[in-house]
């Protein structure tokens, strides 16, 4: 089975990661690569590391007719952009995995609250399943449209959801401090992400209003105070999460809850050892640990992922594999690059 793929936003960091992962996928063939800002340019102009994998291929401008013969669309576009094109993809019954925030939230009023503008395609929201396979595998298998989760929510939800579901922490008490590599800000040049601004620095941003908070709260059924940080590294997310314990418990009870929840998951590693982002580099793995602190009566959970893989392109491919009935692990690695 060869799946003909179109990638919207192919010239960005996530687009490049999708292309890199598709090289090792036995069934995926990227054939239409849309990148309006790079239209006409060879793939290796934006992604020189892919020169040998995609010789002769060029970016092109998106047109509806270019979807003829396409089996699967990956969209890695800025928020708001997918609302204008999703209807066409759905009408054509093309499998669709969208990384943008446009269809992650079920309630258009919640979208407007966090994104500051009305949703322009609220009638399409019901077509999409929120895409974290470890949480919604059965629903993903039944749909044709997946809204892949954001990178911060993926790390956070994987660390916390088994603990909330097991009743170990008060869902109204959750605090999340998470740090991301600079690639999470996208390829576009910004003063805040220049080398001189990032190197040897560590900063918080999006205080009390970061948009990913809405995804965390919706998936966890919780109230979350989320503070993102920018770390001086290219890739990775480390999410450190806290919640008030619902009562006394064994120190390893949260860790055992995670082990039970993810015992059969191919991409989640639960361990006593506090995780490092470097362990996940280039892989679709999530490394997680948790503890109960009897002194403070709080539960601590920590999660590490690669923001461009499990937090973006890898998760998109994992969702697509499930949706199309393929081997869920196809094209995806569990081992990071180290050192």
UniProtKB/TrEMBL annotation:
Its EC number is 1.2.1.38. It is found in: Cytoplasm. It catalyses: N-acetyl-L-glutamate 5-semialdehyde + phosphate + NADP(+) = N-acetyl-L-glutamyl 5-phosphate + NADPH + H(+). The active site is at residue 151. It holds the Pfam family Semialdhyde_dhC_1. Keywords: Amino-acid biosynthesis, Arginine biosynthesis, Cytoplasm, NADP, Oxidoreductase. CDD domains: AGPR_1_C (cd23934), AGPR_1_N (cd17895). Residues 4-143 form the Semialdehyde dehydrogenase NAD-binding domain. One of its GO terms (molecular function) is N-acetyl-gamma-glutamyl-phosphate reductase activity. InterPro entries: AGPR, AGPR_AS, AGPR_dimerisation_dom, AGPR_type-1, NAD(P)-bd_dom_sf, Semialdehyde_DH_NAD-bd. Pathway: Amino-acid biosynthesis; L-arginine biosynthesis; N(2)-acetyl-L-ornithine from L-glutamate: step 3/4. Catalyzes the NADPH-dependent reduction of N-acetyl-5-glutamyl phosphate to yield N-acetyl-L-glutamate 5-semialdehyde. NCBIfam families: argC (TIGR01850). Belongs to the NAGSA dehydrogenase family. Type 1 subfamily. This is N-acetyl-gamma-glutamyl-phosphate reductase.
């Amino acid at each position: 089975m060869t799946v003909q793929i179109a990638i919207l936003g192919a010239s960005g960091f996530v687009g490049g990661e999708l292309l890199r992962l598709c090289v090792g996928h036995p069934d995926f063939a990227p054939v239409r690569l849309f990148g309006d800002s790079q239209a006409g340019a060879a793939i290796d102009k934006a992604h020189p590391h892919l020169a040998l994998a995609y010789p002769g291929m060029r970016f092109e401008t998106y047109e509806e007719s270019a979807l003829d013969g396409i089996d699967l669309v990956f969209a890695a576009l800025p928020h708001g952009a997918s609302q204008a094109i999703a209807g066409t993809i759905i009408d054509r019954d093309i499998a669709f995995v969208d990384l943008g925030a446009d269809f992650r939230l079920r309630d258009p009023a919640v979208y407007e609250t966090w994104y500051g503008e009305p949703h322009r395609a609220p009638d399409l929201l019901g077509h999409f399943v929120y895409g974290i396979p470890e949480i919604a595998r059965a629903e993903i298998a039944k749909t044709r449209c997946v809204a892949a989760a954001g990178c911060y929510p993926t790390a956070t939800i994987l660390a916390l959801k088994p603990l909330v579901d097991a009743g170990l922490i008060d869902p109204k008490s959750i605090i999340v401090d998470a740090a991301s590599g600079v690639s999470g800000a996208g390829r576009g040049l910004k003063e805040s992400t220049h080398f001189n601004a990032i190197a040897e620095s560590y900063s918080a941003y999006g205080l009390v209003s970061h948009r990913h908070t809405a995804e965390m709260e919706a998936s966890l059924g919780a109230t979350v105070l989320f503070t993102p940080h920018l770390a001086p590294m290219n890739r990775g997310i480390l999410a450190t999460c806290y919640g008030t314990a619902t009562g006394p418990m064994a120190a390893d009870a949260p860790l055992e809850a995670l082990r039970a929840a993810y015992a059969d998951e191919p991409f989640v590693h639960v361990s006593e050892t506090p995780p490092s982002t470097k362990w996940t580099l280039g892989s679709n793995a999530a490394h997680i640990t948790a503890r109960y602190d009897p002194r403070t009566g709080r539960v601590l959970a920590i999660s590490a992922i690669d923001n461009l893989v499990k937090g973006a392109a890898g998760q998109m491919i994992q969702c697509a594999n499930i949706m199309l009935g393929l081997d869920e692990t196809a094209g995806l690695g569990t081992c990071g690059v180290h050192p």
